[in-house]
Amino acid sequence: MVRLGPKAPQHRKGTFTDVPQGLLEEISHLEQILTVPASKLQEITKHFITELDKGLSKKGGNIPMIPGWVLDFPTGSETGDYLAIDLGGTNLRVVLVKLLGNSKFDTTQSKYALPKHMRTATADELWGFIAECLQKFVHEFFPEGVSAPLPLGFTFSYPASQDNITQGILQRWTKGFDIDGVEGKDVVPMLQTAIEKLNVPVKVVALINDTTGTLVASMYADVETKMGLIFGTGVNGAYYDTCGDIPKLEGRLCDDVSNDTPMAINCEYGSFDNEHLVLPRTKYDLQIDAESPRPGQQSFEKMISGYYLGEVLRLILLELADEKKLIFAGQDLKKMHEPFVMDTSFPAKIEEDPFENLSDVQDLFDEKLGIQTTVPERKVIRRLAELIGERSSRLSVCGIAAICQKRGYKTAHCAADGSVYQKYPGFKERAAQGLRDIFGWADNEEDPIVIVPAEDGSGVGAAVIAALTEKRLDQGKSVGVKI
After folding, report:
1. Does this model's pTM top 0.85?
2. What pathway does the UniProt record associate with this protein (predicted)?
């Protein structure tokens, strides 16, 4: 099945006759540097393919290309009851996934708030808390008990090294966690020990990344799926390669894994072009990078992800106000000088303003920044938000196009999740147009490669991966490197 992709929106109709000449000239310049033409998208995509290949090589590259140790495609026929947990920054989510076959499933879930001290608690307290939540969940939904331990897929969204799908060695804590005695160790036996201490009938069978989960969950529900994607605070993609095309695994695979065996790859491609060879970075991008906690890293992510879109807008507006004296004359801009005071909801709300005089934009700047705006200023702000949103959307699809070209996909459903994909106005239409521009498709034809809504990666995906892993282990097949 192919779908007609959404058409890109035209920028807001309206006249700029009341905008002063100096401001018009600045907007014209900003349009030039923030617009990414088809030829540039094609150039970026071509370089992206070489970077993906480099990440799979023995030497490695900027893009990590992490093997996810999911060595089978889901068929949609998997059945059974599976648990999934997702340890986030504020909650632990526990999900019961009933895989029904025929690409159908049911889910039941509960959320358990992490106690405030948990991010800096002891390792025993953390794993004990998770085990207690699992105990409550199992008692509630299986009051009569279970005949065999429930298999669990553990979504662990922290940097972890894996030589097989049943382990995850924590490299470093993120999201404000700082718990001693966990970094450098395998988290799976720690959790399993805590579970067994409470006699909870649960066995951890797979540790996964949420983007890989998005890929597998979406493939279970839709056989046309070729990619799992996250467009949110960060950006990432996952797809299936073949083991014979992953040089860095040469000599490490078990005998039952052939060159044709599929391997889920968690790209972590937010770090694309850290060498700064092709991305059209502006001085605002350079400033954001220089002032970030890790300059020179995550170059792609810093241009397109939800975390940074409002900051690009803030820096441009500050330049127009402070240096060029073209907007906000005589006003106190102290609030606007705070880094990241304008989150991504700013440009999103600006683009969503339905009124001709953009009164919602006025209310937004008044309430959040204490700044009064004129109608011509609001028109300029609106145009800047459009340019920033469109640039993000168009650059975002270069990773999709690169994977499709690398793998030779002529048709594909690319399953996407994340706040930018779900909520940012115009993202879907602009991304679809970006793909048309890269591949040269005609506007009046059906798009053979389309972005579609993803299934729940950290819930359904973790469960399907647990099912695939359990089946492999039952068949005596390997789920990791040679020991």
Report:
1. yes
2. Carbohydrate degradation; glycolysis; D-glyceraldehyde 3-phosphate and glycerone phosphate from D-glucose: step 1/4; Carbohydrate metabolism; hexose metabolism
